[in-house]
Batch of 3 targets.
Target 1
Amino acid sequence: MRWDIFCRVVDNYGDIGVTWRLARQLVAEQGAKVRLWVDDLAALARICPQADVDSDCQLLSGVEVRYWAQAWQAVEPADVVIEAFACELPTEYVAAMAAREAPVLWLNLEYLSAESWVEGCHGLPSMQGNGLQKFFFFPGFTAGTGGLLRESGLLAARDRLQGGAGARIEFLGSLVISPVAGARLISLFAYENAALAGWLDALAGADTPTHLLVPEGRILGDLQRWAGSPLMLGEVMQRGALSVQLLPFMQQEQYDALLWCCDLNLVRGEDSFVRAQWAARPLVWHIYPQQEGAHWEKLEAFMALYCQGLSSEAEAALRAVWRAWNAGEGMAPAWAAWLQCADELVAHAHAWARRQAVYADLAAALVQFYRNWL
Amino acid sequence: MKTAQEMKPNSVALIDGQPWLIQKAEFTKSGRNSAIVKMKLKNLINGSKTETVYKADDKMEPVILERKEVNLSYISGEDYVFMDPEYNSYELRAEDLESVLPFIEEGMNDICEAVFFEGKVISVDLPTTIVRQLAYTEASARGDTSGKVMKPAKLNNGTEVKVADFCEIGDWIEIDTRTGEYKSRAKAPA
């Protein structure tokens, strides 16, 4: 079973984050031979430091990583071809797919959404003008979708780390993090956000201490404006009850473990959003902003799904925080309500992760789709 | 060539040399400012049907279709018979009218367009705006007169629509057939 996965890095780390995880999982768990075509190796190198940005072809974690150059060099198409996030395949490659004697399964791996229309579109074909069919494959949160990326050992590894204080301290120590005693540990990974300063003020003025861990990213500018001075990597800045620590950009496994260690995770986009759900800890999602506010419907759709089973108070608190965070509005009142429901939100995050784990993971669902197609 | 987004219901696209009637097209924004169109297609050669998805900016080859003005003559079970000004009648099955069926009812006098492919009628288009009567709706719950508060209602043929809160049973309303949405209250057709 040979797979070609095409990834065009448009912005941020969602494209490469998802495809890199998927490629590795297909190799490790499904016995697939995978070529990952990436047009921006520097983006890969940020989450996989072993990657050589100057190499056109390299083997990383069993995945053959190929530089997707503008000038396409002819190759034999694989059995399964994934264009991630509707990236356009090279014309010559599509022609080679059409000419291949054994048929090729062509999949467009779509964006993650909780909207109800996803189930109606998942797995549908798209007739192309060359005798080929392309299938739309939608990840999602329900049985009628393609599921979420979840490696087979992920939840057990999470449970081991969360179950042992020593393991947690040891891991945090590896990132040079010494948790402030009695502090709420929060990770922050977000787009630029005008709501940040107000929320940090609320944390600084709170009775309970907070240790905020901020991996490098787009929120850094807002953070430094609030701090009033540049923050150095690893250094802990203190203001009132709030300690802020800037962390280097990290590998995916490290980031997963960081999420597992935190009491609350603020995440963004698609990849970190999914990983925060597997962390089984409360999360706040900064959704990718779209033209004409199209992202609001997607945010509301996910909240409607996620909030099932919450008390009306906790649901109102969660919705208020998520909406304020995404609108870049004052967080303080919503945050106060959130804290009132904190215990319920913790239990709910566990229950949500358990419910999601019942579904087939995305890689397994893709393989099953291929088998059914055969 | 047109984009998938530009292909409307009752248009025909040539795909792999086969003419496909677009019976239904639903536009949806997916992620990061991209969009998809889900379509119901009917093959005009062999009659097979399929559901399919396209990226909104995928290119499709439209087929130029002949059109003719017609009126609804009568409905007999699943058969819908239309007539042109020369008294030629055209019979269509309910399944051929999927995109407009919710707004077709006995006695309607809208000037429609029959759509032909190679001389054979394949569907009918309604005017963009039609006027229909409300057979049922609840009384106004909030007394809203702004038109912004909506409530469910049923047309004479049972089709459900959302109407302004101030609409009442027996009222005539304008509907946009492209979206199926209520536009305004209207006068009874002459």
Target 2
Amino acid sequence: MIAASKPAVEIDHISKRYGRTLALDDVAFDVPRGTVFALLGPNGAGKTTLLHILCTILAPDSGTARIDGIDVRKDPLGARRSLGVVFQEPSLDDRLTVEENLEFHGMVYGVAKPVRRARIAEMLKLVELEKWRGTLARALSSGMKRRLEIARALIHDSRILFLDEPTAGLDAQSRERMWQYLRNAREERELTAIVTTHYIEEVESCDRVCIIDRGRILADDAPAALKARHGHERLRVVARDEATRAEVLAAYPDIAAAQGEEIVLRGGGDAFTESFLTRFGTRIRRLSIEEPSLESVFLSLTGRELRDQAAGARERTYEFGKRGGEHTR
Amino acid sequence: MTDHAIRKVERRPAVLGSWATGLYAIWLREVKRAIRDRGQLIGGVVRPLLYVLIMGIGLNPYFRGEIYGEVRFVVPYTYVQFLFPAVIALNIMYTSVQSAVSVIWDREFGFLREVLVSPMPRVAILTGKILGGTTVAMFHGALVLALARFADLPLTLADLATGLSLMFLLAFALTALGVVIANRIRSFEGFGVFSNVVILPLYFLSSSIFPLDPSLTSAQSRVIYPEWLVTLIQINPLTYAIDSLRGAFIHFHQFDWWLGPAVMISMAVAFFLVAWHDFRRV
């Protein structure tokens, strides 16, 4: 393939303003082919705005983006052909069956009938929904709905998949399985997946993590590299007696903090651990080394934890629909 | 088929054929959803029963004037016959507006977005949606026709053909209107608002349940309608649509025969263009 060397997604100095808020401030990065790329940031950071620009339903104020080499502003229909989208809110038709939902998608994307049939079978197998093909989508659990949406986004052989908060609202087991299907899909077909999330533990297994806050890109690298650069290793020590405890606290006044019976030593690395052990090794009861987490990376980059948001107007309307609303689903 | 072959077929460029498939998919979805919506179906069956069998037959004896012992009908038809074409229009109207409501839900719950990120052009999406709503509305209108024998209405094939084409025009125009309304609504308060604010006023002000021209008989001429009512009826486009349906089914016109089709065609074109304009910005 000629285009193999080109990045799957190229984002070039994109800005978007809503009234007085700058939702995206000069965002630029590339997503290499075949990677699982995570966009990590709190609600309102601009992740969804960016995704909507990439899937051509929102125009940026300035800057360009290319999907598979196609400019999303000049040829939106062409760009849409190579991408699959799983939106934040469920977008299945509840009154159609699992198979009909996939069939509908295939038809709308102009997939020829024999190909459509073959792909539907293949995708149902991938997300393990074969048994449910005749079930109305409304009868599925939320985890199953998500899986169906992933299958649907792949029906037209999209090589670039956008997933906006695909695991929000799912239980731990469904979340784990969702990631498993995504990894399987990537193995089977050189898939590039761009995933937004605010669950920090989920991005550990991604190839690249891009941290975004208040419309700006703060970091963009592999998780390990991010941790090495911005994270801190921590030693948790329990001293054998009070005297030692006092001695440790006194020895490292800048980086030591008492937490209950434990002493937490911030910073370090292997050399520090070695020197600590040489001096106190025989007088401590327990020692554990805490690897730097992405949580600490995020904290040190943004100065705060990932926060949550109150339910907006849309959520309330959605609740109305869920309660049975009139002539709705 | 091998995976390689699959990819090859799939990568072919977009042609009109694939748009047609997409349009058909959207149409099919509308129809399938409507069939599975029990509430809507029950409404479509019960409404004509109430209007034709109860209101129509109930008011039948009062729809005539008596001069010196001679019984004459206000219009040369019985009340059920007079009312019957209007009930068809009513059923079409309810269903068209319900499909507008489905546009709102599609928008709020992201299904519309899923279609909007597909390679289908907006105009094909809109056309599929409106044609789907039109089909369902036609079907609900045709349900009323099943009651034709209770209304003592002999239906010839020619009448039926004319009637069905007029019903199609009306259903298309009203569904397009529904989409226009739906695009402008930001907060949704339920279908009841629509039915009370849009459907019923339009229906009652369309000379649907009483004839407008009181000078048809001498007995009736003594009753003079207030001017505001006559004005409202005359500016209501539905008046002319129902009049043309009457022309098709009972060969009775209160206005020029061409007015109805002309009004409906202009409505269909105008609302479709407005809906298209709105849809490009969604």
Target 3
Amino acid sequence: MLDFRELLATAFDALTRNKTRTALAALGIVIGIGAVIGLISLGESSQQSVASQIESLGANLLTISPGSTRSSGGVRGGFGTATTLTTEDADAIEDASISSVEAVSPEYSSRYQVTTGENNTNTTVVGGRAMYADVHSITMSAGAFFTDRDVENSARAAVIGPQVASDLFGDTATGVGETIRINKVAFQVVGITTSKGGSGMQNQDDRIYIPLTTMQKQLAGVSYVSSIAVQVKEKANLISTENEIGYLLLERHDISDTTTADFSIISQQDIVGAATSVTGTLTALLAGIAGISLLVGGIGIMNIMLVTVIERTREIGLRKALGARRRTIIMQFLAESIILTFSGGIIGILLGYGISIIAAKFLDLPPTLSWSAVALAVGVSAGIGILFGWYPAQKAAKLAPIEALRYE
Amino acid sequence: MMIQTDRLTKVYDLGDVRTVALNAVTFSVEKGDFLAIMGPSGSGKSTLMHIIGALDTPTSGTYTLNGREVGKMNEDQLAEIRNREIGFVFQAYNLLPRTTAMKNVMLPMAYARIGRTERIDKAKKLLKRVGLGDRMEHTSNQLSGGQQQRVAIARALALDPAIILADEPTGNLATNQSDEIMGIFTELNTQGHTIVMITHEPAVAKYAKRVLLLRDGGIVSDTRA
């Protein structure tokens, strides 16, 4: 056996003897590892982005939604069409003093036409209580959120998102003190929220918040709510709290069979899980395809190592004549293929990281380097070196010294 | 006795054809001897050299080198014998390509796991001894044939082997370089090294103290100068 330093030096000598070939063989691994790292990192950053967007709607939330209506003919209405959930339900949950409940927020939302003298927009208007801001992690960039007193008095106070401010007043920071008309009812703008991002129907910036009482009495003309958000103190208590609230509401609604419940409760974790599992599956699929290119790269390494063994038959014979054992020859060739795949792997990681940074920039995602993917790539590339270097190394080690010395 | 063989036989069985390359060859070489093995091609001298060099094992018979029975050793033991007990000098020099003279001489010592500083010291000493003190960092392709063979001799001496085994060491060299190499061998022999050399040139065989003539796998004559 050679000592480690000698082994590495010998392998480096051999690899630098034909630089172009070495570089091309390593390129297969570079591309394979780069693709795997790039795609996994990109997938992880999109998962993180989805998760953080959902988390930004409020931490540790349970959302109670009404169930569907059921007509006498058995025709089932859409999800959330029932009108069974009320502010009294919300108060009951609060009064039940469930120790893990932090806050209860009954809400009613609907889309309305909103106008000023010059501009108009169509947006989601949410009616809530003052604690809505805390429960949904809403912060203000200008003015203040409406107060409990506003809710008691059914005040016509409106807090608008920066998108609404931009649509109505041409600037994301302008509007406090102005009057807007929601469905022809005049409201005074009391505050503007800070931007949260998001897009489409989920755009948190394209919202107007008004007191729940004002919403129910003056805009919607209803007495029920469209959802109740419950903030739980500890993440660990989400499920137990979900169950407690569930039983409480079943009792209040006089339902004994849980399958016929006229409401449903989902936790933030469920939403995050559902949303991220989709991107997770996609990421795994893409990484799998990238993995195939890695496999092809590995076969390229094996191919080049086989050629090398044949080219160096005489050298192997000489080494054996000078006292190299089988193991020594195996180690020498394995060292070469491992160095080849390992260095390819390192460059591949850098390439993959570069790809994920550039792609994240274009897709407006936070750039992430998936460390688990890096660990995997380092392991896999070294593993490929061993796996695909083993057969050529065995072939080299099995050469009979006389035959190898004679080889021209 | 450095080398002792008893009815050494090698049979190549290639399916239909059975070739007897060596037929019960018995001879011995004492320490400090300089033996030339001669014979026409097909006489079995290469086969004999392979067995003496622990590159191959006999079909039957025994071969004892420096008191150890080599004929029945396994592959790793043979590798150790080649490493420690035999210094090879080949016709085609067989240096590692594009590798310095120093690294070539250090290679057998690396396989013997000798420390790096000791390897460097020994290799320098040996290269000076064969007259290449000024060419130690030259790579093999920067050296002439005669110089390459001198590196090979230095490499053969690296682990103070029991015998130096030379296979047509001057076969690729011009006469003047050939004389230089044979001069080195004679000098090494004078210093006490045991040398076994295969050659088909009578002029080269003259340097040896003793000539073994082979024909058809058997010894025809064994003459001492």
